[in-house]
Amino acid sequence: MLQRKLLNGVEILSVNVNKVKKVLKQISSKIKKEHPEVVKIILFGSFAKNNFTPYSDIDIAIIVKETFKNFVLRQDDFIDYFKKLNFDVNVVVYTLDEIKKLKKENNMFVKDILRGIQL
pTM of whole model > 0.90? Predict the structure, then answer.
């Protein structure tokens, strides 16, 4: 996924975005099988917009039917799925109701998520 090459003593980094997206879809399928509360998994941010660099992180939003967990602790259920990637991964977890409320409030972060790529 992340490829390193040397050219005249200079390290060149490149990203095989198709391979990254393929692996993300595989991870997404596994999460959905193991977590029936998951409604959608969305890739957003620079990877979804194709303006990433080899140093970009991968932004993932997971939308669940409901949860009683603290917002900050919700990602703990999912972050380990992404460990095999050679990138930092940022996971946010929202409930359907939270997404609806924030969308109604014109929350720009949620709008960015909803413009992302459903995995």
Answer: no
